[in-house]
Amino acid sequence: MKGHPVPSAKECRKARRMDLVCRLFFFGDDDFEGEAQVVDLSFSGCMARSMEPLMQGKRLKLSLFLPDGHAWPVRVDDAIIRWVRDCEFGLEFLSIRPPQLHRIQQYMIRKRDMLS
How far apart are CA 84 and CA 36, in angstroms? Predict the structure, then answer.
């Protein structure tokens, strides 16, 4: 489903984004669930691709499978779809527990250091 026009990246980005490819499972109300592929990640959100029809403004719980050596996913307790464009969509993390956020931060720092 198509959403509203997407603001420019500079207008809506709250944190620096890093290219990434990993799996994402999402869960919503009324047994709504699906799978996506993350294409970039920041401390405050991510962009992903999914064949599921998604709507801007929908609230989701997320399981993010970072390629950081852990078998279990990062859990995001509350996220909102900020925009949808064809099969791509942007998520903002609204509620994430500190240990989960720390894991994202550590992964991004290690990846950045490896690229430097």
Answer: 13
Decide: helix, strand or coil at residue 12.
helix
Burial of residue 58, with CB atoms counted within 10 A of its CB: 0-12 exposed, 13-18 middle, 19 or more buried: middle
- Counting every residue written for the chain, the total comes to 116
Per-residue CA distances from 50 to 5, 16, 26, 68, 90 (Å) = 18, 23, 10, 22, 11
pLDDT digits (tens, 9 = 90+) for 20-66: 899 999 999 888 899 999 999 999 999 999 998 899 999 999 999 99
Q: What is the pTM of this model?
A: 0.82
Where along the chain do its domains lie? 14-115
Q: Tell me the CATH architecture of domain 14-115.
A: Beta Barrel (2.40)
> Using an 8 Å Cβ cutoff, are 49 and 36 in contact?
yes
CA distance linking residue 4 with residue 7, whole number of Å: 9
Contact of 50 with 34, CB cutoff 8 Å:
yes
